[in-house]
Design goal:
Blueprint (H helix, E strand, L loop, with lengths): L13 E6 L2 E6 H23 L7 H8 L5 H36 L11 H18 L4 H36 L4 H25 L2 H12 L11 H12 L1 H11 L3 H6 L4 H23 L5 H13 L6 H22 L6 H26 L1
Antiparallel strand pairs: 1-2
Length: about 375
């Protein structure tokens, strides 16, 4: 007879599903959490489409989606609200998966794409394009910046800056033949330098141009629609297709580089591939919505704690990230009396969690 301590509820821990000669290992707890996140994302999206300056009833939403109703209703539902809500889900999913990969590869709970220079590179490139095109548009440099914005748009310029910053960190790490810890430290140094240049640039610009750049640098989904969904959708789809292979490699790397090597894994290839995927996910997300802070850091922790796993689960992080950023954008746009950038909401939530994690790690090191 089983003792009470040995009893386990069916949704706790992994289970094996057998179909003839085939067997599959499933985690009912993760499936339940994933289902809750999907339902939550659906509810948040519906609320985001319904509420705003003009209330849209479910019947009006249904008519607008079917191509009926007035042109104004279709414009509000499809272009202004639904597109923005979907962009929020996609950006949250991209940032969260990037954060889960970075923390797992670095084996450091404080690691995040925000600190390895990608976000700072995108912010500097966008701020540079905005300031030059707005302040000195009559000069040769300003004219080139304005032309660059017209051709690629602000997301394209930000993506270019994020890619160059990430490439700089990778090249410096490979040149020094550094470890993953050195990769993180080099990223911190590059991020601090780029952030300093961005701050100087905003101080140099006139007030109106600096205000426009500051809004984007805070992280905002204002004005986003279906035109901004294709890039994060494509990158996220490819990353999800690689999720099985990535999770398999991460489970081996979690045991340590030496153990993973003994088990037959190409450690450098696995680490490089996972960091590359994280870089692309972060760069695309930042290029679409600006540098939204703390999502890539907080969500993997929440997914790991909820699922009770040793490393952040990739797919659960994706679902959690979509829900949480969608909810944060709904609060920033419709719940608060005046609209604010969503990056402010995520920072208010993420900063206390960062402080808690830092204090917890310091106490653990002190005790050891």
């Amino acid at each position: 007879m089983m003792s009470p301590a040995s009893k386990q509820l069916p949704w706790k821990g992994p289970r094996v599903l057998r179909l003839g000669s085939l067997s599959f290992r499933i985690n009912l707890r993760m499936l339940l959490l994933g289902a809750i996140a999907i339902v939550g994302s659906t509810v948040v999206t519906l609320l985001a489409v319904m509420y705003g300056d003009i209330y849209m009833s479910p019947a009006a939403i249904r008519e607008a989606l079917a191509g009926e109703g007035t042109p104004i209703e279709r414009r509000i539902v499809i272009d202004l609200r639904l597109g923005r809500a979907i962009v929020a889900l996609l950006v949250g999913a991209c940032l969260s998966m990037a954060g889960a990969l970075t923390q797992s590869v670095a084996r450091n709970p404080l690691a995040s794409p925000d600190i390895i220079g990608i976000t700072s590179g995108a912010a500097l490139a966008a701020a540079l394009a905005i300031v030059l095109s707005g302040d000195v548009s009559k000069t040769n440099i300003g004219g080139k910046a304005d032309s660059l914005l017209k051709v690629f748009g602000l997301p394209g310029v930000a993506l270019l800056g994020a890619s160059l910053a990430a490439l700089t960190v990778v090249v410096l790490t490979l040149w020094r033949r550094g470890t993953m810890i050195q990769f993180i430290l080099i990223g911190v140094g590059v991020s601090i330098f780029l952030s300093s240049v961005t701050t100087w640039l905003l101080a140099w610009a006139d007030l109106e141009t600096a205000r426009q750049a500051k809004i984007w640098l805070t992280g905002s989904l204002n004005g986003r629609d279906f035109h901004e969904t294709w890039a994060p959708s494509a990158v996220l789809l490819l990353s999800v297709m690689l999720a099985g292979w990535l999770a398999f490699k991460l489970s081996a790397l979690a045991l340590g580089e030496t153990v993973a090597y003994v088990l037959g894994h190409s450690v450098r290839l696995a680490q490089g591939t996972q960091i590359l995927v994280a870089i692309v996910l972060t760069a695309v997300a930042v290029s679409v919505a600006g540098p939204i802070g703390f999502v890539a850091f907080v969500v993997p922790h929440l997914a790991r704690i909820a699922s009770r796993t040793s490393t952040p689960p990739l797919m659960l992080s994706v679902l959690f990230g979509a829900f949480l950023l969608g909810a944060a954008d709904f609060i920033a746009r419709a719940v608060i009396p005046w609209e604010i950038p969503v990056g402010i909401i995520t920072s208010l939530v993420g900063a206390p969690i960062l402080l808690y994690m830092t204090i917890r790690m310091v106490r653990r090191v002190t005790i050891v």
